[in-house]
C-alpha cells in the first residue's frame, strides 16, 4: 500500500471544521487590522530562501526540501513565507503603490525535520508582514494580532516573550564582547555551539544543551549594548503592549543570528503542548528587503504554526464547535420516483440549503439511518400515496411533527426549512 510521506498528514473531513474555524478567526482578525491576503507560489528559487532566511540557520542548512527540476534549476519548497512575500513585494514594486504594505498569508510550509507531536514535514502557518515602516507600533501590533487570535480561540496557558536585538552596529560590538566571554568557556561548549562560535555566535543562546545554557546564563547581554534610539524603540513596544493589556516577559535569550534582524523579536509559547511549545514567532527585519534586492525599507512580521495551535486547543479542550448538521434528507420511498427526489434536491441546493439523498438504492430504514447520521433537521418523504395528490411529507426531526406539502409549492418547503 502507498502511504502518505513521513511527517505529512491528511486533514480528514471529520477534522476540517476546526481548520475552518481557526482560518475564519485568522482572516477576520487580520482584516480588522487592515492586512490583505497574499498568495505566493509553493516553490521558489533556492537562492531566495538561502539569502532570505540565511545560510547559517537550521532551516537553510538542514531542513529545506531542495531539488533540481527537469531543466536543472534548483527549486525549494517554501519553508516559511517572509522571503516569498518580500520577493513579491519587490517584484511588483508594491512600495510605489502604497508606502506601507500590510500582508497576511495562510498556507502549507515544508521542512525536513524529525517528525514528532507538533513537528511535521508539511505543516501550516498563518502570518503577517508589514513592509515600509519602522514604527515600533507595528512591532507591538504583530504581537497584539497573534495574541488576540490565540485568546479568541480561548487559549489560556500563554506566555509572550520579547527581546530587542538593536541594530547591526550595536550587535558587532556586543558579539566581540560575547566572544571574549565565551573564549574562557570554549572547551566546555557543545560541539554545535563551538561551530556557532564562528558562524553565528548569538545563536548559542538557542542551544538546548544543559552545559551551554549554564554558560550562557552568565554571558553579557545584548540589551546592555543598545544605544538610546534602540532602547526607545523597545520602550514604545513595551508600553504599547501594556496599553493593549498584554502581559509579556523580556527574554534576553530570544535571538536571531542574522544581520537583517533588528530591534524586536518575540515568541508566544503555550504551556499546553509539551516540548514543541512555540506557537508563533516573529520580529523586525529592517535589512531584509535590501538584502533581497529591493530598496532599503524596513519590515516586521510573524508566523504561527496552525497544527500546534490546534493541538494546544485540543489539550485545553476549548474548541466547542457546533455539530455538523444538514437542512434536509430526502427519503425516497419508491425507487421509481427518485427523479422527483433529485429534482427537489437540486432546486433546494440552488437556494442554499444543505440537502442529501440516497444514491445507493437503500431501504427506507437505511435511508432514515443516514438522515440521523447527517443530523438532518428535516426529512422529506417522496413516493408514498400522497404523491398521487402531488404531495410529499415533511418531518421535523427535532419535534417530530409532520405535514403534507404540495410539490408545486417549493417556496413553502423553503420557508419551512428556514424555520
Ligand atoms: P522551532 O523552534 O519549534 O523549530 P522555529 O523557530 O523553527 O520553531 P519559525 O520558523 O519561527 O519556527 O516558525 C513559526 C512557527 O511555525 C513555530 O512557532 C511553530 O509553531 C511552527 N512550526 C515551525 N516548524 C514547524 C514544524 N516542522 N511543524 C509544525 N509547526 C512548525
Ligand atoms: Mg525549527
UniProtKB/TrEMBL annotation:
<feature type="binding site">
    <location>
        <begin position="80"/>
        <end position="82"/>
    </location>
    <ligand>
        <name>L-histidine</name>
    </ligand>
</feature>
<dbReference type="InterPro" id="IPR015807">
    <property type="entry name" value="His-tRNA-ligase"/>
</dbReference>
<dbReference type="GO" id="GO:0006427">
    <property type="term" value="P:histidyl-tRNA aminoacylation"/>
</dbReference>
<feature type="domain" description="Aminoacyl-transfer RNA synthetases class-II family profile">
    <location>
        <begin position="1"/>
        <end position="322"/>
    </location>
</feature>
<dbReference type="InterPro" id="IPR041715">
    <property type="entry name" value="HisRS-like_core"/>
</dbReference>
<keyword id="KW-0067">ATP-binding</keyword>
<feature type="binding site">
    <location>
        <position position="125"/>
    </location>
    <ligand>
        <name>L-histidine</name>
    </ligand>
</feature>
<dbReference type="InterPro" id="IPR004516">
    <property type="entry name" value="HisRS/HisZ"/>
</dbReference>
<dbReference type="InterPro" id="IPR036621">
    <property type="entry name" value="Anticodon-bd_dom_sf"/>
</dbReference>
<dbReference type="InterPro" id="IPR006195">
    <property type="entry name" value="aa-tRNA-synth_II"/>
</dbReference>
<dbReference type="GO" id="GO:0004821">
    <property type="term" value="F:histidine-tRNA ligase activity"/>
</dbReference>
<keyword id="KW-0030">Aminoacyl-tRNA synthetase</keyword>
<dbReference type="Pfam" id="PF13393">
    <property type="entry name" value="tRNA-synt_His"/>
</dbReference>
<dbReference type="InterPro" id="IPR045864">
    <property type="entry name" value="aa-tRNA-synth_II/BPL/LPL"/>
</dbReference>
<feature type="binding site">
    <location>
        <position position="256"/>
    </location>
    <ligand>
        <name>L-histidine</name>
    </ligand>
</feature>
<keyword id="KW-0547">Nucleotide-binding</keyword>
<comment type="subunit">
    <text>Homodimer.</text>
</comment>
<keyword id="KW-0963">Cytoplasm</keyword>
<dbReference type="GO" id="GO:0005737">
    <property type="term" value="C:cytoplasm"/>
</dbReference>
<dbReference type="GO" id="GO:0005524">
    <property type="term" value="F:ATP binding"/>
</dbReference>
<dbReference type="InterPro" id="IPR004154">
    <property type="entry name" value="Anticodon-bd"/>
</dbReference>
<feature type="binding site">
    <location>
        <position position="129"/>
    </location>
    <ligand>
        <name>L-histidine</name>
    </ligand>
</feature>
<comment type="similarity">
    <text>Belongs to the class-II aminoacyl-tRNA synthetase family.</text>
</comment>
<protein>
    <recommendedName>
        <fullName>Histidine--tRNA ligase</fullName>
        <ecNumber>6.1.1.21</ecNumber>
    </recommendedName>
</protein>
<keyword id="KW-0648">Protein biosynthesis</keyword>
<keyword id="KW-0436">Ligase</keyword>
<dbReference type="Pfam" id="PF03129">
    <property type="entry name" value="HGTP_anticodon"/>
</dbReference>
<feature type="binding site">
    <location>
        <position position="111"/>
    </location>
    <ligand>
        <name>L-histidine</name>
    </ligand>
</feature>
<feature type="binding site">
    <location>
        <begin position="260"/>
        <end position="261"/>
    </location>
    <ligand>
        <name>L-histidine</name>
    </ligand>
</feature>
Amino acid at each position: 500500500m502507498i502511504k502518505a510521506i513521513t511527517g505529512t498528514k491528511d486533514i480528514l473531513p471529520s477534522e476540517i471544521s476546526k481548520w475552518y474555524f481557526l482560518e475564519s478567526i485568522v482572516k477576520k482578525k487580520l482584516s480588522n487590522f487592515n492586512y490583505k491576503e497574499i498568495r505566493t507560489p509553493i516553490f521558489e528559487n533556492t537562492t531566495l530562501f538561502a539569502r532570505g532566511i540565511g545560510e547559517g540557520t537550521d532551516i537553510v542548512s538542514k531542513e529545506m526540501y531542495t531539488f533540481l527540476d527537469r531543466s536543472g534549476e534548483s527549486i525549494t519548497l517554501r519553508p516559511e513565507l517572509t522571503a516569498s512575500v518580500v520577493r513579491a513585494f519587490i517584484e511588483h514594486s508594491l512600495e510605489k503603490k502604497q508606502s506601507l504594505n500590510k500582508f497576511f498569508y495562510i498556507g502549507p510550509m515544508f521542512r525536513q525535520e524529525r517528525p514528532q507531536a507538533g513537528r511535521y514535514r508539511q505543516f501550516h502557518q498563518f502570518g503577517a508582514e508589514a513592509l515600509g515602516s519602522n514604527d515600533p507600533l507595528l512591532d507591538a501590533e504583530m504581537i497584539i494580532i497573534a495574541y488576540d487570535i490565540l485568546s479568541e480561540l480561548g487559549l489560556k496557558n500563554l506566555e509572550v516573550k520579547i527581546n530587542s536585538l538593536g541594530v547591526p552596529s550595536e550587535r558587532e560590538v556586543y558579539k566581540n564582547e560575547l566572544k571574549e566571554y565565551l573564549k574562557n568557556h570554549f572547551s566546555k561548549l557543545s560541539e554545535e555551539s563551538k561551530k556557532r562560535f564562528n558562524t553565528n555566535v548569538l545563536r548559542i543562546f538557542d542551544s538546548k544543551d544543559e552545559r551551554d545554557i549554564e554558560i550562557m546564563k552568565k554571558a553579557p547581554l545584548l540589551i546592555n549594548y543598545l544605544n538610546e534610539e534602540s532602547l526607545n524603540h523597545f520602550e514604545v513596544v513595551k508600553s504599547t503592549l501594556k496599553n493593549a493589556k498584554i502581559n509579556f516577559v523580556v527574554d534576553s535569550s530570544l535571538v536571531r543570528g542574522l544581520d537583517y534582524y533588528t530591534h524586536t523579536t518575540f515568541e508566544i509559547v503555550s504551556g499546553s503542548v509539551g516540548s514543541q511549545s512555540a506557537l508563533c514567532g516573529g520580529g523586525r527585519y529592517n535589512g531584509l528587503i535590501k538584502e533581497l534586492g529591493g530598496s532599503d525599507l524596513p519590515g516586521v512580521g510573524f508566523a504561527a504554526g496552525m497544527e500546534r495551535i490546534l493541538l494546544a486547543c485540543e489539550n485545553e479542550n476549548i474548541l466547542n464547535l457546533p455539530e455538523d448538521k444538514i437542512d434536509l434528507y430526502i427519503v425516497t420511498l419508491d425507487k421509481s420516483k427518485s427523479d422527483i427526489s433529485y429534482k427537489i434536491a437540486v432546486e433546494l441546493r440552488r437556494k442554499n440549503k444543505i440537502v442529501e439523498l440516497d444514491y445507493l438504492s437503500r431501504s427506507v430504514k437505511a435511508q432514515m439511518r443516514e438522515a440521523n447520521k447527517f443530523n438532518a433537521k428535516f426529512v422529506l418523504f417522496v413516493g408514498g400515496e400522497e404523491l398521487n395528490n402531488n404531495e410529499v411529507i415533511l418531518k421535523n426531526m427535532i419535534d417530530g411533527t409532520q405535514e403534507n406539502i404540495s410539490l408545486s409549492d417549493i417556496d413553502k418547503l423553503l420557508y419551512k426549512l428556514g424555520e
